[in-house]
Amino acid sequence: MSGLPFIKMHGLGNDFVVLDGRENPIELTVAQVQAMADRRTGAGCDQFIVMEPARHSTADVFMRIRNADGNEVEACGNATRCIARIMMDETGKSKVVVETVVGLLHASEGVDGTVCVNMGPARLNWDQIPIAEDCDTLNMPVTVGPLEGPVGVNVGNPHAVYFVKDAETVDLEAAGPHVETHPFFPERINVEVVSKMEDGSLRMRVWERGVGITQACGTGACATVVAAVRRGVIDGRKADVVLDGGTLTIEWLENGDILMTGPASYAFGGNFHASVYPGA
Q: Which range of residues forms the domain containing residue 205?
């Protein structure tokens, strides 16, 4: 069937529709992204990814990211691993560079098919999150129901990390949209609820801005470990983060960069019909 080719991939259940616009530019309206991302009438995804020619001389590919609601976002850790996986498979290289609107992300092949990405430095100042007013981002004054005093971290996109006694019991579907759209966060925000487990790992659930509850969030896992180190929740600077879809290993290096290691999986491929994308 002719049409616009796509690949469906996921990182621990955080799923993506990937389009290749490196040879032929792909321009999508918000309505087209929403139609393709719809889980009943489209291919279904949390984020929508378009691969474009690299702008930087050292990069292998440029990755453009849009949420299922059609809005463009700056970063997505799980998608970065997936795009790195595609580039490694295409080129045969064990190290690639993925370019995004916020910079260059260096990725390398790990053991058992995993991918490790250097997500760059954590941004911790109030104006880097960003939030509406100058305050200590280690304990932001945003209370929604049982959630209070989140840690603010920007990992290419903004996160509010709430530490709770038991992340499983939080009604994230109810609280998530209220935190996301709180006036304290002018660009909206991703929301994590986190509890420390007996083995030292961190149980994290996530509400992603413009998407809702997802199985995993790579930048959210990174933000969680940074927040846990800042709050003294964990010993050291490395931890396993257990998400609904599986586990990511995160390390906050002494130089400020964050390493994220986890799987990147293919699901299936197909073509969008011309009725969805007339330019195909």
A: 121-262
Shared-domain flag, residues 96 and 141: no
Q: Which of 45, 82, 116, 217 is catalytic?
A: 217
Say which CATH number the domain at 63 has: 3.10.310.10
Is residue 217 annotated as a catalytic residue, yes or no?
Answer: yes
Q: Catalogue the E-assigned strands of the chain.
A: 4-11, 14-20, 47-52, 61-67, 72-73, 95-100, 103-109, 115-121, 151-154, 158-163, 190-196, 202-208, 212-214, 238-243, 246-252, 257-262, 265-272
* pLDDT tier for residue 112 given thresholds of 50, 70 and 90: confident
Say if 115 falls within a structural domain: no
Q: What is the pLDDT of residues 144-197, one digit of tens each?
A: 999 999 999 999 999 999 999 999 999 999 999 999 999 999 999 999 999 999
pTM for the structure as a whole: 0.92
Among residues 45, 76, 82, 116, which one is catalytic?
76
Domain membership of residue 94 (yes or no) is yes
Q: Is 82 a catalytic site residue?
A: no
